[in-house]
Amino acid sequence: MNNIVFKLNNIGKVYNENEKNELTVIKNLNLEIKENEFLCIVGPSGCGKSTLLRILAGLELPTEGEIYYRGRVLKKPTKDIGMVFQNYSLMPWLSVEENIALGLKFQSISKEKQKKIVDEYLEMIGLTKFRTSKPYELSGGMQQRVAIARSLANNPDVLLMDEPFGALDAYTRIQLQKELLRIWEKHKKTIVFITHSVDEAVYLADRIILMSKNKGAIEVDIQVDIPRIRDRANPRYAELNQQLLDALEDLNKVE
Ligand SMILES: Nc1ncnc2c1ncn2[C@@H]1O[C@H](COP(=O)(O)OP(=O)(O)OP(=O)(O)O)[C@@H](O)[C@H]1O
Question: Annotated Gene Ontology MF terms (predicted)?
């Protein structure tokens, strides 16, 4: 079926901690991610969320099993799969517009077209006035907007986001959650988003998976059945939040 973007078959990931010790982070993980799906991954620290995301990005290979991206075995990163990290990862010596254009420079796109794309994304994130500013002149929220725009400028099919709003203050975080949903609805990307915040997952996701430290097992896999724009005062919102918090607490008890 062509609406499956990722298919993971019995994925395993073992790291060599040192010459003697191996660490099995993920074992027998099966997962399908659909086109346009907004999937959030939550789980205790160290359960393998970032490892899974790096495997989805083609940055790391599983040590067991297969990963398919649109029906083909994924062996290395591709420009169709974009990534956004918590620490913005902008080039400090480049301006906002140069950062957004970064990925475009490596493609055979005319200067004129590049400028058009950069202008479009600057406008989308509301930072046109800051086009010549350097990252250090911007707040954390503004920098993360630039990082998101830089990924989107490459027109990826999938956006992988590793705790992108984790370092932001509560107000900016809520603003960026709304913005991201607006972008996702407009551009219809598939998004895989890691968060430590259950509330953020319930606000954003179509589907939430909860991983445990028990070799990255998926303990909970639920659809969020609340229409958008979600109202945090909706009783179902509180109910799902509590269900996930209880599941996390149970995991911490057994680990
Ligand atoms: N390159 C590596 N070599 C060895 N061990 C690693 C490597 N990368 C990750 N690990 C280990 O694998 C485990 C899972 O790490 P990972 O970063 O995927 O977890 P996480 O769920 O994203 O954690 P957090 O929520 O704290 O970011 C951890 O014990 C970590 O120390």
Answer: ABC-type quaternary ammonium compound transporting activity; ATP binding; ATP hydrolysis activity
